[in-house]
Amino acid sequence: MEILFQNVWLVPLFPFLASALSGLFLFLSPSSIKKGRSICSFISILFLTIAMLISFYSFWQQITGNPIHQFFWSWVTDKNVTLEIGYLVDPLASIMLILVTTVGVIVMIYSHSYMLHDQGYIRFFCYLSLFTASMLGLVISPNLIQIYIFWELVGMCSYLLIGFWFTRPSAANACQKAFVTNRVGDFGLLLGILGFYWITGGFEFQNLSEKFFNLLGHNQISVIFANICGILLFLGPIAKSAQFPLHIWLPDAMEGPTPISALIHAATMVAAGIFLVARMLPLFEMLPLVMGIISWVGAITALLGASIAITQKDLKKGLAYSTMSQLGYMILALGIGSYKAGLFHPITHAYSKALLFLGSGSVIHSIEPIVGYHPNKSQNMNSMGGLRKYMPITALTFLSGTFSLCGIPPFACFWSKDEILINSWIHLPFLGLITISTAGLTAFYMFRIYLLTFEGDFRGHLLINKCQNYSSISIWGDKPVSDESEERKRNPGVSSNTLITQNLLYPKESDNIMLFSLIILTIPTLFIGSIGVSFSQNQINFDFLSNWLHLSINPLNNIHSENFIELLQNAIPSITIAFIGISIAFFLYGSQFSNSEIVSKLKNFKILHFVSKYLYNWSYHKGYIDELYYLLFVKSLRSLIRYLVLLDQWIIDGIVNGAGILSFFGGESLKYTEGGRLSSYLFFLVSCMFLSLLYSYII
């Protein structure tokens, strides 16, 4: 066992080696890309599977033995500063290792089929393995300096993967937006790390909270400065986990390939912020102001994300705002000190959201040849509908993820979400009201997504009739050519309507590899919630997750869990709210979907009609937050730069250029006085002296 824990660094090393080998193959054999695709994907999946097996084995050894293992090596040694690197494996780290590796393996298997015909297949697996390795390295980091290094690596990989199809302007803009937004949070994180080092003199998680507690108990630190450092440190998770007000990058991140969307939203980038808050929670609990900010940021994010998701037409962006809302739940739970619920929900949400994103990828992959490859077509839910008839397995697995996210028992997210609802209501009733309202909105928009995508009749052909001249864009920047124009070349003299009628295509189920990934993810979506349910045994409540988290480094004593019957009784209001949201979704979208029908239904209810008229635009335009940021930062900065350019041209450059011009004309005028005659020099000298004396006499 000791030999294993001394080599836990192999967990991030294996996917890193897979990334290096894929990149090396791509660099040395660019002409053999097609032949090397299967080799690179096999190496990536194999190496990450080995890392997953090591994670499971270390988890089992922790259960049967010592739950905490850490090792350090000296990195920088000085008289005043000592920096160490190493790894820390405790229950929190082992749970995250299993989460990242299991979801990562499934996403890689799915990606082999999804990206098979893409020109950047090997480059994709190279980035994907590096992304996974960075997250695994972050999870086992024992101190803040090492976690910051891997934090930046995760951000770099997300930049590369969001902008994977970089020739598409929207993808290029999206990756830049994600990069710049996260720079704001990362700068705050760095300042917070340095601030706590200034206070405690160390970076290690094990000693950080203990030193801070002792200093705080003896009044040897400024509470104001400590709160500032805590808020700055929290800026990192705000940006990385897409919390308000730095959430704006997450929906645009859907420009990347769908498997990347699944990995970012389930187990890597957004989970990094949750992990860091959980790791620092023993310290944050000593700062009530910071805990209050964390809880309210989470509550606002949860409600805002759900409010925006209810009107989105893009399938992936609707799921993205769903992720934002669920991340708000997690941050809220940690902010109110509900440690177990705050870590239980990331586990259940990861598998459910990965299932939903991979299911959406299956849908997009199926309808792209019919409606076109532009995201405005292939991801637009108005061009879907009726897909359950053509893709029954995808529909069934997607429905499982939908039930889970809605909080319907016995699916996974029910157990974790309901615990957050109960704990938030106990902590502060107003927070409980926000979480209950968010739960109702979640049920509404998730079933809206499902109904628009899988129920009714297929509407893709209606979009083709409306957009006959709208050609699909190429992800590689080539000149787009519509399928209709190619067909017209093969069949000259045939009208457009005849061509469309003769060549009606319908979606078909994805291949077995993609379906295998969806079916595998359905299993934890159904059963993973059982690890956090408390069962009574001999009048003792047994809860595996709570008992396991008690063994973490810096354990918390306020891990609360309810028994099974009590939890179900307390869940009745939340289940009722969820069914109300589902019922409203069925009322509006359950029958043959038509905007005119919905409008006519809403006109019968003045309040709903008012809401649809005035609040729909607010929700559809994402609360106008992007426009506000554009006005405050982009437009105002450009105006300021214009004024600075004018200042530079006319004031700064004017002074320098004016001095040069004066020197030039002064030299030109004086050169005519330089005749070489001594009498002329004496005349000017005497004249100047006379004028000087006359001026002095007058003064």
Automatic annotation (TrEMBL):
Primary localization: plastid
Keyword NADP among UniProt keywords: yes
UniProt xrefs under Pfam families: Proton_antipo_C, Proton_antipo_M, Proton_antipo_N
Catalytic reaction list: a plastoquinone + NADPH + (n+1) H(+)(in) = a plastoquinol + NADP(+) + n H(+)(out); a plastoquinone + NADH + (n+1) H(+)(in) = a plastoquinol + NAD(+) + n H(+)(out)
Alphabetized GO MF terms: NADH dehydrogenase (ubiquinone) activity; NADH dehydrogenase activity; quinone binding
Domain NADH:quinone oxidoreductase/Mrp antiporter transmembrane stretches: 141-439
Alphabetical keyword list: Chloroplast, Membrane, NAD, NADP, Plastid, Plastoquinone, Quinone, Thylakoid, Translocase, Transmembrane, Transmembrane helix, Transport
BP term (GO), one: electron transport coupled proton transport
Keyword Transmembrane helix: yes
Residues passing through the membrane, by range: 6-27, 39-60, 92-110, 122-141, 147-167, 179-200, 220-239, 260-281, 287-306, 327-348, 354-373, 393-412, 424-447, 513-535, 571-591, 643-666, 678-698
Membrane protein topology class: Multi-pass membrane protein
Subcellular location per the Swiss-Prot or TrEMBL entry: Plastid, Chloroplast thylakoid membrane
InterPro entries: NADH_UbQ_OxRdtase_chlpt_su5_C, NADHpl_OxRdtase_5_subgr, ND/Mrp_TM, NU5C-like, Proton_antipo_N
A single Gene Ontology CC term: chloroplast thylakoid membrane
Ranges for domain NADH-Ubiquinone oxidoreductase (complex I) chain 5 N-terminal: 75-125
Function of the molecule: NDH shuttles electrons from NAD(P)H:plastoquinone, via FMN and iron-sulfur (Fe-S) centers, to quinones in the photosynthetic chain and possibly in a chloroplast respiratory chain. The immediate electron acceptor for the enzyme in this species is believed to be plastoquinone. Couples the redox reaction to proton translocation, and thus conserves the redox energy in a proton gradient.
Database matches in PANTHER family: NADH-UBIQUINONE OXIDOREDUCTASE CHAIN 5
This protein's name: NAD(P)H-quinone oxidoreductase subunit 5, chloroplastic
